[in-house]
Amino acid sequence: MNRNHFNRRQFLMSNLVAGAAIMTGQSLTTQNQNPSEVLLSSHTSVKDNKRKLGKLEVSSQGLGGLPVVGFYGGGVREQSHVNKLYQTAYENGITFFDTAEVYGPLTNETQIGEALAPFRKQVVIATKFGFEVDPNHQSGRGRPLNSRPENIRRAVEGSLKRLRTDYIDLYYQHRVDPAVPIEDVAMTIKDLVKEGKILHWGLSEPGLNTIRRAHAVHPVTAIQNEYSLWTRDSEKAVLPLCEELGIGFVPWCPLGYGFLAGAINENTRFAQGDFRTILPRVTPENIKPNLQLLDFVKEWGLRKRAAAAQISLAWLQAQKPWIVPIPGTSNLVHLKENIAAHNIKFSKEELDEFEKGLSRIQIAGPKNTQAIIDAMGVEAAAKK
């Protein structure tokens, strides 16, 4: 198989078009209509597919915001394009939208605030605090952590303004600040809930004890960790703890920075500014062995008449009913492909078979850069 000519859209076309015609009863020779639009038009919406993160009801899939600020290259997207992307997501049942103060920085919240304004009351907005943010420092990397109560209050006021809203549905601590007791953070959050400025809160990449301590002060709604077919650390202890405490789980980077969507191969050359230029698992020495995983996912795609991205997302959603992935994209076709993953179901026998296949594949390279890994699983300072 020539991987150079086997991207996610071509895979979708070559393996799904005929089957979709049978399933939907539609003619795929319709003139003046993109074949992928015909394919997905009656299967995309997740309006009737809801999940619970704690007590917060959301769509079964969310939309991450990083791609539209140029995290994967291409620069900040035009606001008109962002508006169309988010309108399309909403029209197809997505009601859960993820962003952060540090995305841009500040830019993504502004983009999303405008895009979601026409239907703000019908959607759930999640954003994050926890870094020092200088609007004049345009890189989101290398920022010092700061979860002191006064910085949380500064951050929430700025986010409310940029998001054009008077409340935030879900407010995450972006990374645990080891210098600040989590009890101080949780008490600040508790006060903000009383003030009506936030409705729910969560943690991203926290240590296990920090989750318990935070939850004891004010119930945690969701944990957001990196989780995908090639990054499964959370299965060992975080997911069992979430189940024990009734906390929802939101996988970030559920498509492995696009790798699990078939967007990266050994010949890929990333655009200037693309974060993936420093991602260990797609370096020349690691990409070739890791393509075994992508080939495995594509084989399942042939069986399920689905694209690699759809298999990857459907597998995540099959793990627990309280898991809600948030794939990001700036591409309208990819958006619809991702949403349509909800149509794919795995039986218990299929999941067992899938797991056996995965167990035979060895992933090469660390899951992320060392700086990002060092900020994962951190425990907050003890309360004195």
Task: Characterize the structure shown.
- By secondary structure, this protein is α/β, with parallel strands linked by helices.
- The chain has one domain (42-374): TIM Barrel, CATH 3.20.20.
- The protein is built from 13 helices and nine strands.
- The chain has helices at residues 8-24, 35-40, 79-91, 107-116, 149-162, 182-194, 208-217, 238-245, 284-304, 308-319, 332-339, 348-359, 370-374; strands at residues 50-53, 56-59, 63-64, 96-98, 124-129, 168-173, 198-204, 222-226, 248-252.
- The protein has a seven-stranded parallel β-sheet, covered by helices on one side. Strands 1-2 form a two-stranded antiparallel sheet.
- Strand 8, helix 8 and strand 9 (248-252) form a beta-alpha-beta unit.
- Helix 3 runs parallel beside helix 11 and helix 6 (182-194) packs parallel to helix 7 (208-217).
- It is globular, with a radius of gyration of 20 Å.
- The model is unreliable at 1-6 and 11-42 (pLDDT under 50).
Specify the CATH homologous superfamily.
NADP-dependent oxidoreductase domain
Count of strand segments: 9
Name the overall outline. globular
Return the structural class.
alpha/beta
CATH class, please?
Answer: Alpha Beta
Approximately what portion of the residues adopt beta-strand conformation? 5-15%
CATH architecture tag = Alpha-Beta Barrel
- Structural domains: how many: 1
CATH fold type:
TIM Barrel
Radius of gyration: 20 Å
Alpha plus pi helix count: 13
Strand order of the largest sheet: 3-4-5-6-7-8-9
Distance, first to last CA: 61 Å
Characterize the main sheet. Answer: 7 strands, parallel
Uncertain residue ranges: 1-6, 11-42
The ordered H/E elements are HHEEEHEHEHEHEHEHEHHHHH
Overall mean pLDDT stands at: 90
**Percent in helix:** 25-40%
